[in-house]
Amino acid sequence: MFAALGDETRLQLLVKLGTGEPQSIKQLTMDLPVTRQAVTRHLRVLEAAKFVTQETHGRERRFVARQAGLDEAHHALKVVAQQWEDALQRLKQFIED
Amino acid sequence: MFAALGDETRLQLLVKLGTGEPQSIKQLTMDLPVTRQAVTRHLRVLEAAKFVTQETHGRERRFVARQAGLDEAHHALKVVAQQWEDALQRLKQFIED
DNA sequence: TTAACATGCAACGAAAATGTTGCACAACGG
DNA sequence: CCGTTGTGCAACATTTTCGTTGCATGTTAA
Q1: Residues 13-32 of A with CB under 7 A from strand C
Q2: Tens digits of residue pLDDT in A67-87
Q3: Residue in A18, A21, A40, A15 with CA at minimum distance from that of residue A29
Q4: Does the CB of A40 fall within 7 Å of any strand D atom?
Q5: Which of A50, B4, B27, B87 is 20 to 30 A away from residue B94, measured at CA?
Q6: Closest Cα of chain A to B94: distance in Å?
Q7: What is the largest distance, in Å, between two alpha-carbon atoms of chain A?
Q8: Closest residue, chain B, to A75 (C-alpha)
Q9: Nucleotides of D under 7 A from a protein CB
Q10: Taking the model in full, what pTM does it have?
Q11: C-alpha A56: how far from its chain's center?
């Protein structure tokens, strides 16, 4: 999941899709400094990580942001961050006592 | 930042450090199926991404979880998730009208 | 002082990620 | 029907990442 977010190009794709508009591969490739094929690959990664979904439309394949995907990543970090906070808090308390 | 989280070994290291206890490289290497050198590298990545800090202690180098690091990652995702939600909401509204 | 210990640095190898190009094919439009 | 368009697949090159091993160095403790 985080690995999918850990690439600059993919982050840019997610930002673009964040407008909510379904967009074709060609559309998504514009403005990016890589070829259509590279974008296709990245989209496949994002789809595998559940950050986007597809909808075929004639000869086009439009990709859409998947809200739940980001929510899940967000939640995962929230949980870990909370655990850390608790642990560090306990440790601090222990040292003070 | 996300790239640093996107590796299984590094995630395990973060979990271990999540106990709050500062731990040496040797300690962190135990239980992991890789060599000390590999762990050292991962720790360097985590430090560069601000997820951990060091404190030299004699001949040991102890690493500590850095709460703020996770908080920042968490916050970053929160912001993007919110933007997505807004955009998708507007789009839905637009379609319904 | 000297042996044991924790670590750093550098060289190297293997695997994965990223990107490209070339060709094929189905859908659309005049 | 035929050219254009949006895409898929496969082969390949390059770069990064991940891991190892070997040796050097500072610290500790008997």
Answers
A1: none
A2: 999 999 999 999 999 999 999
A3: A40
A4: yes
A5: A50
A6: 11
A7: 69
A8: B74
A9: 5-11, 17-22, 26-28
A10: 0.92
A11: 21
